[in-house]
Amino acid sequence: MRNQGIGSWPARRARMTPGRVALSYQGHDRTYGELRDRAYRLASALAAELGVRRGDRVAYLGPNEPALVETFFAAGLLGAVFVPLNTRLAAPELRFVLEDAAPAALLLGTGREGAGRDGDGLPGRHVPAEAYEDLVAAGSAAPIDEPVSRDDVCLIMYTSGTTGRPKGAMLTHGNLTWNAVNLLVDVPLRHDEVTLVSAPLFHIAALAQTLVPTVLKGGRCVLEPSFDVERTFELIERERVTVMFGVPSMFGFLTRSPRWAGADLSSLRHLLCGGAPVPLPLIRAYQERGLTFLQGYGMTETAPGALFLGAEHSVDKAGTAGVPCFFSDVRLVAPDGTPAAPGEPGEVYVQGPNVMPGYWRRPEESAEVLDADGWFRSGDVGIADEDGYVRISDRIKDVIISGGENIYPAEVESVLYGHPAVAECAVIGVPDERWGEVGKALVVPRPGAAAEPGDLLRHLDGRLARYKIPKYLQFVPELPKNAAGKLLKAPLRKRYG
Amino acid sequence: MRNQGIGSWPARRARMTPGRVALSYQGHDRTYGELRDRAYRLASALAAELGVRRGDRVAYLGPNEPALVETFFAAGLLGAVFVPLNTRLAAPELRFVLEDAAPAALLLGTGREGAGRDGDGLPGRHVPAEAYEDLVAAGSAAPIDEPVSRDDVCLIMYTSGTTGRPKGAMLTHGNLTWNAVNLLVDVPLRHDEVTLVSAPLFHIAALAQTLVPTVLKGGRCVLEPSFDVERTFELIERERVTVMFGVPSMFGFLTRSPRWAGADLSSLRHLLCGGAPVPLPLIRAYQERGLTFLQGYGMTETAPGALFLGAEHSVDKAGTAGVPCFFSDVRLVAPDGTPAAPGEPGEVYVQGPNVMPGYWRRPEESAEVLDADGWFRSGDVGIADEDGYVRISDRIKDVIISGGENIYPAEVESVLYGHPAVAECAVIGVPDERWGEVGKALVVPRPGAAAEPGDLLRHLDGRLARYKIPKYLQFVPELPKNAAGKLLKAPLRKRYG
Questions:
Q1: How many other C-beta atoms lie within 10 A of the C-beta of residue B77?
Q2: NCBIfam families per the record (chains A, B) (predicted)?
């Protein structure tokens, strides 16, 4: 095939295993042969009806569902670029992202029915959820084989930055392929895996650590629109799930459920956990059920795996994120630019075939994080032990990780500043048993302003995705600053954290 | 690391699993940490003592043993090119290959002790087997990290051609890496594999289908200098071998041994078989022991996997070589250049990241087999069934495959013609229960010559590798030719085959 990208994968899989089930969704199965045919149909319809061409963006706004997966592969068949949108974004956030990505087509999924017709203000040409099946039916199942190389951009995934302005990380077909290869080196995935995909596919971890490697191996993805404790137990038992990906809080919710003790977890083989280190008590709770975690460290820009901690070291190296993935490299750089010695902190740099070529239309921000040798500056600080196992100790980037979602305080603060009662503000992360961290806003009110904390939180509602809205908001008389007037978050965390 | 090639693999593995055993050989184990250190030592010594530089060839002449594996990785660390030599070659054949490869260093292994000193005529700078450990000890274990890309040539492997002149297929680090990735997609190799490496590593199948993927996964290779039935049973039982590669005749020998019935084969998980389709009775014999074959089709030039037949189809698709490997493509081209329809024969073309960039210093022969799009012409004929499973039906190339070794009749004939009693000759393959095929020479004696068939066979001895010497040699009154005087082998096969 001339298509060396991921768009060709349903066809490559269907050469080998046309009759195996690729996707299960709400009781319906779709085989690899069907997935291939539907991807061809959708791609030909996108080209014919919406004029999608090589390099054009094709956005999808919806939960985990077959149409999202089909759009991912169909875009790849055309050499177009898939843009999965975070369904949790508030309308102004979504508008910003769509204006930046400027997609040739925006497909609206479940939960957005009618959105395309009632003109809810989203820019671009829409395919309403109701029109999706007609679109697929309008297309041809004849093979499409556009020349696509592994260096071509496969998708753009938006990540908020420390500036508060979301930016699109471009990931190539090669980036996603090599991440899957790194995973196959570390995890003996089989062709009969049943992978529960309930973490949102608009995040890199779910897309790249569950969907992509499962399709590569010819396994079955059980798609779920969202994570739900009861439903997770039900699916594990009924579908005989073998692979699960989640953030620590998801795995924590399961242990606190009344169903935990009696649940049949015997089908599970691999628990992939990302976003934050798994706390030792959680490791123990699963160990008692004969289950170990596969952990790691990564980010959207590295597609995502950079470090990996295998099952055999989940206890003795608990709290670390492991060692570099096989085909990737990680180094820790001390503030003076020299390699950090074991035990000493250093900024985490990542290199390898999984590292993005840059941010979409952001040459300056790309140059800030990528050097000429392809090393990506993560903005996180790590400390390696004598065996090379890296513990992520701090973030140079000001970011809160809450239930696996990255929250950038700068973004929340900029919206808070839009309220007339706010003289100064700072958002910090505070520990939370369920979510790892949650946001806390500290606000110096403008003298004479009559607003209450609740008024400010309501101001955020609708302007920011819900998960970004601080759980706590507290008025304070002043915020600590250094001599140059720069806000100091460390003392704030110490005092209010 | 700047080294993205296979030379970096021992170091990459040692980041993850320094204490796991990489190689077992005659009761001695070597861990990944030791393999990394010894590869560094050998590489630094090759550079310092023998002046090996990037792009230089480093040849190894010896059986499967740790020094061969270390030389492979050490060459890769320097960006040098590994040239494994077939130990079965006769002196004149070996001389031709060495003159063609012009290695900066030739390491002599077990069985060639003293060869470097007594000047046996091999060109190039030698490292006698006795000097090997001193060389390693002279080197430094400090990390070496030369910039090596996956597009750089990793090794040159010689393959005789239809012209009778061996040519070196250049394989890049990427070629071997992608072949291993294709294998991981098809076979769920684990980190605890114990791989018996008794097929010779100077052939692509053993190197690329056993050693390379096992190191990638962090498993253990049990190196054996050669295949021996008794010893194979002994090793399977003692080392708890999980993966074996062989040609059908090797697997056939095992079933005919008196040890077969009582052997403990319970550790075996994957039987990889190449060179020729596994006959159905052999499939059945192993099935009775709960074992299925993984088969395929490939060649040196495709590093080697092109087609793969998984365990689940080993019976219903027996006799075929399967479907294209995941990241590779295969098409069948009819004589008029159009795609061959299912059921119709076509020449097998292979494309993908595993296809060689060309033959060493043979631009014309490279251009003959590789087109501008990277499609490699195999010279074999295949017929696909309706499901895309390809049966290799014939060879456009005149080649005999005997016990997994390719014998090119043209090469044997040219040596036969060197005997004064030979007026005309032709070598054909005849079926053989043990070896699949063996060679049979048909000779028209020169009028008045007094030589017997045995004289001619003795003439070949020492001039050709033993495995190339025909098992049968028969005098015939004439050889069939077409109107243009071209020798016709088909009627010969019909009459004498």
A1: 28
A2: PRK06187.1 (NF004837)
Residues B380-431 have pLDDT tens digits of 999 999 999 999 887 777 788 888 888 888 888 888 988 999 988 999 999 9
Confirm or reject contact between A102 and chain B (CB < 8 A): no
> How far is the C-alpha of A314 from the C-alpha of B269, rounded, in Å?
27
A151 shares contact with chain B (CB less than 8 Å): no
3-state helix, strand, coil in chain B (%, to 5): 30, 25, 40
Q: Are A376 and A301 in contact (CB under 8 A)?
A: yes
pLDDT at residue number B120 = 63
Class of domain A6-382: alpha beta
Phi, then psi, of A405 in degrees rounded to 5: -90, 135
Both tokens of residue B201?
A: 């590593």
B residues 193..252 contacting A (CB < 8 A): 216-217
Task: Tell me whether B388 touches chain A (CB under 8 Å).
Answer: yes
Give the distance from residue B350's alpha carbon to the nearest chain A alpha carbon, in angstroms.
Answer: 10
All CATH 3.40.50.12780 domain ranges in chain A, comma separated? 6-382
Q: What is the ipTM of this complex?
A: 0.89
Query: Residue A326: which of B12, B327, B388 has the nearest Cβ?
Result: B12
Tell me the sheet residues that pair with A401: A406
Q: Which of B189, B190, B323 sits opposite A16 (nearest CB)?
A: B323
Does the CB of A191 have a partner CB in chain B at under 8 Å?
yes
| Residue A173 CA: distances (Å) to CA of A5, A72, A82, B324 | 5, 11, 11, 20
Residues A296, A321: contact at Cβ < 8 Å?
Answer: yes
A–B CB contacts, 8 A cutoff, strictly below: 51
To the nearest whole Å, the CA of A189 is away from the closest chain B CA by 6
Element (H, E) at A32: helix A32-50
Residue A211: what pLDDT?
Answer: 98
- All CATH 3.30.300.30 domain ranges in chain A, comma separated: 400-496
CB A94 within 8 A of CB A139: no
Closest CA to A22 of A5, A34, A38: A34
Nearest CA among B274, B294, B286, B267 for reference residue B192: B267
Distance CA A483, CA A475 (A): 23
Report the distance separating Cα B76 and Cα B144, nearest Å.
10
Q: Residue A410 above 70 pLDDT?
A: yes
Which of B188, B191, B329 has its CB closest to that of A189? B188
Model confidence over A417-457: pLDDT tens digits? Answer: 889 899 889 999 999 988 889 999 999 998 888 889 999 99
Among the ranges given (A422-426, A480-484, B274-278), the one the predictor scored with the smallest mean pLDDT:
A480-484
Whether a cis peptide bond, with omega within 30° of 0, leads into B357 is no
**Helix/strand/coil for A281:** helix
- Among A12, A310, A324, the residue with its CB nearest the CB of B326 is A12
How far is residue B139's CA from residue B153's CA, in Å, rounded to a whole number? 24
Q: Closest-CA residue in chain B for A150? A: B353
Are residues B16 and A184, on separate chains, in Cβ contact within 8 Å? no
Starting from the edge strand earliest in sequence, which strands make up the sheet with A472-475, in order? A422-432, A436-445, A472-475
CA pair distance B263, A4, nearest whole angstrom: 45
Is A261 exposed, middle or buried, given 0-12, 13-18 or 19+ CB atoms closer than 10 A? exposed
pLDDT score recorded for residue B57: 98
Handedness of CA A133, A134, A138, A144 (dihedral sign): negative
**The tokens 């390898």 sit on which residue?**
A352
Residue type, B152: D
Count the residues in chain B.
Answer: 497
Mutate to test the interface with B, among A176, A177, A185 (most CBs of B within 10 A): A185
> What fold is seen in the domain B400-496?
GMP Synthetase; Chain A, domain 3 (3.30.300)
A439 phi, psi to nearest 5 deg: -85, 145
What's the mean per-residue pLDDT of chain A?
Answer: 92
